[in-house]
Amino acid sequence: NYILEAVDVSFEYTDGTKALDNINMKICKGQKTVILGPNGAGKTTLFLLFNGILKPKSGKIMFNNKEVKYSRKEIEKLRKNVGIVFQNPDIQIFANRVYQEISFGLMNLGMPEDLVREKIEKVLMQMDITDIKDKPTHFLSYGQKKSVSIADIIVMEPEVIILDEPTVYLDYEHVSKIIKTLDDLISQGKTIVLSTHDVDFAYSWADYVYLMKDGKVIDEGKPIDIFSD
Ligand code: ADP
Ligand code: ADP
Description:
This protein is of the alpha/beta class. The protein is built from 8 helices and 10 strands. The chain has a 6-stranded mixed β-sheet, sandwiched between helices. A 4-stranded antiparallel β-sheet has the order 2-1-4-5, covered by helices on one side. A hairpin with a 2-residue loop joins strand 4 and strand 5 (about 65). The longest helix is centred in the C-terminal third of the chain and has 16 residues, at about 170-185. The radius of gyration is 17 Å and the shape is globular. The two termini are about 30 Å apart. The relative contact order is 0.19. One adenosine-5'-diphosphate (ADP) binds near residues 26, 28, 31, 33 and 208. It is a peripheral membrane protein. Keywords: ATP-binding, Cell membrane, Membrane, Nucleotide-binding, Translocase, Transport.
């Protein structure tokens, strides 16, 4: 049961850089898919295609077994259903205070304030960041910013949560908090896709792994199969 698929997808940036070269990838609903690959492999580009920020040059993106046709309505639907947490939290966080930051998306939908408050309290607890809810975002540590940027996305309750290098530059405590949150989301039936350089983490955590290099998928499989050779 695949919720997202890339079928023969290629992508080139306007300066001619070939970022993705005939990618085929299937994301199983409710599973933990990990994409491993060095810098420049095309992971971020693929993520931007998965939520409709970019459009393939050739090939197609499928969501719930339907080809995305890139009408405004379909792109909106894809973005609503597929949330991305970017690697750098600074490009995602723009409100002055944590509570305001996390409530922004819901307020924007016109959700009543008491319902917004309820959802935010829940996410703050889930991520164990209730203590910083009134803090200025400007003064947060990198790990706190990372948590806030994840809260930003999960409060919107997308079906698929994509995270670009969620554990990089973090200490053990923050990493385990984030992993606990991701496991919670899985137990709620959400689908997680994340990129990492961390082979041990991929091996121990993923249900399914894709190895990317130079814009291509060079291997894929269950961790036990992919790391045994
Ligand atoms: P296997 O025989 O190795 O257990 P399956 O029969 O389950 O594999 O799957 C057949 C194909 O479906 C695989 O080669 C792979 O391309 C794809 N596939 C299987 N599981 C997943 C998954 N969790 N995520 C993405 N693709 C998968
Ligand atoms: P990864 O996330 O695996 O590091 P990216 O998707 O960021 O890979 O990059 C894939 C390729 O596309 C790299 O060669 C990178 O330099 C290039 N690239 C990324 N963003 C842009 C852009 N905005 N314009 C031109 N080239 C880009």
